[in-house]
Sequence to fold (351 residues):
Amino acid sequence: MTIKRIQTQTRMSQAVVHGNTVYTAGQVAQSAGGESVANQTANILEQIDQLLAEAGTDKAKLISATIWLSDITTFGEMNEVWDAWVPEGQAPCRACVESKLALPKFTVEIMVIAALD
Amino acid sequence: MTIKRIQTQTRMSQAVVHGNTVYTAGQVAQSAGGESVANQTANILEQIDQLLAEAGTDKAKLISATIWLSDITTFGEMNEVWDAWVPEGQAPCRACVESKLALPKFTVEIMVIAALD
Amino acid sequence: MTIKRIQTQTRMSQAVVHGNTVYTAGQVAQSAGGESVANQTANILEQIDQLLAEAGTDKAKLISATIWLSDITTFGEMNEVWDAWVPEGQAPCRACVESKLALPKFTVEIMVIAALD
Fold:
């Protein structure tokens, strides 16, 4: 099985493809830091779409997602954006819990695992 | 490799099978919300048994578990139930940390990865 | 696909190999509890090196890492040790969030997934 790394820097790769499975790094909103949870979620999901595309797959093949919110009371606001993004009938499994994130301006972080085929 | 989704709704699937690997959603105690950590853990582990059965495997093939407790001082209470449930000689790897969960009535959440064969 | 468990006790295995993928348990600093975040991180990364060796692989084949810090303001201190340890051009994807850990003396926990080949 091959390992293909995507957007690799010193600290981390943004995604790693191992065989038929794609793993992403925890994504924070690179263009929407400090904005609303809804805006950060939308920005993160765009980044995930781009990473999956770069890996050769898309959101219809999501397997699993882990979501961290710095304030769990924003669960509903995040879910509105999430629910609209997930392809009907193809939702991944998911966990969503509260944790502070690396920088206070980031209030949402999402990490996914997807299938290549 | 095939993707098989189990109990799929808009927001998430409760489990996804990809090739020989089964991923579950983070399970909270559907029948024991608001009850003791021990009761919630027992309820969650029953749900995991059912999901693994639906996927075609069982707890003897667990690979990895992530456990979130809303209060880490309940670590011992959760572990008593967990330790009794894990098949001897076949324990998965595991991480257990503190995070608040989606609803205050839920104080334990467990997500697992298992092998199909 | 085979399942090989490493350092299995009642509660958990320290690593599980499933096919070509190795999963570790969340590692805390067994020899450096109560010490600085830098010391704990270094100790944990040694433990991960040993587990990967026992599984038949090494840090050049890391796929993904999840890092929990009990105090996210120690992010920089942990990263200094992490960045020096990661092989150039082969960084895994990664998420790092704040969560309290099982015992107060542990302030860093790291769980990884790696490729066997």
